[in-house]
Amino acid sequence: MAQNWTAQTDKDSFTVNSKFPAAFSAHVGVLVTGGAKRIGKAIVGDLAAHGFAVAIHCNGSMTEGEALAEKIRTAGGQAVAIQADLCDPDAARALVKEAQSALGLPIRLLVNNASVFVEDHVGGLEDNIWDRHFALHLKAPVLLAESMAAALSEGEDGLVVNMIDQRVWKPNPLFFSYTLSKAALWNATRTLAQALAPRIRVNAIGPGPTLPSERQEERDFQRQVGAIPLRKGPTLSDFGLTIRYLWEMKSVTGQMIALDGGQHLAWETPDILGISE
């Protein structure tokens, strides 16, 4: 039966009109970490609307996660919300099995989206901020991928998609712990792709400016978007579409797709502008 529903996010919305295509995603369980808000919510909505059964991981956003799961079920999809603190290694190790049990399906698609974005800098580094970034951006995704691989039955394949950041291709010293931990996840993406082949492919998405951050006013966000090469960032629907592309492309592994409007290519820097060479 055709489904028509709109998934709302904090700053944007999109509508998906589709059938739930059995040939495309039948018996595919998905775990999306940080799936109750913002980009994670858009990913959950897109995958659910295309027939995937989705486990929505939340930490402090269970109310939003349960509301999203209920909306998906009402539309004819399959979704559950699960709470876990991924900074706790034991909770991270247990999450895949909890998701499989709740869905009644193997987790064959893992989207490591949960993230923290706290400002720090060299000269003012704090242990708790450093440790939280690396626990959430590196240790938890690796433990989840390891657990997913261990839980898959013989003959089943899978895909891990790590949500990283375009800045791993164009680093700067701002948000130091965040940037360094995301760079570590990019390296983990490639080494996991080697370690888990041939059954599991591991890829990444590098977002650029998509939604204003918690610290950012709308006018500053628009200035940022206006300064990148394409003068526009990704839409929320781009993320689910890209993940579904990676799901279908069985020969792609160890890659990152930058959904950033060309931000990682920005070249109009002070060492070039207005300087004769």
From TrEMBL:
The keyword ATP-binding does not apply. Coiled coil: none annotated. The lineage of its organism: Bacteria, Pseudomonadati, Pseudomonadota, Alphaproteobacteria, Hyphomicrobiales. SUPFAM superfamilies: NAD(P)-binding Rossmann-fold domains. It comes from Brucella endophytica. This is Short chain dehydrogenase. One of its GO terms (molecular function) is oxidoreductase activity. Keywords: Oxidoreductase. Belongs to the short-chain dehydrogenases/reductases (SDR) family. It comes from the Bacteria. Gene3D superfamilies: NAD(P)-binding Rossmann-like Domain.
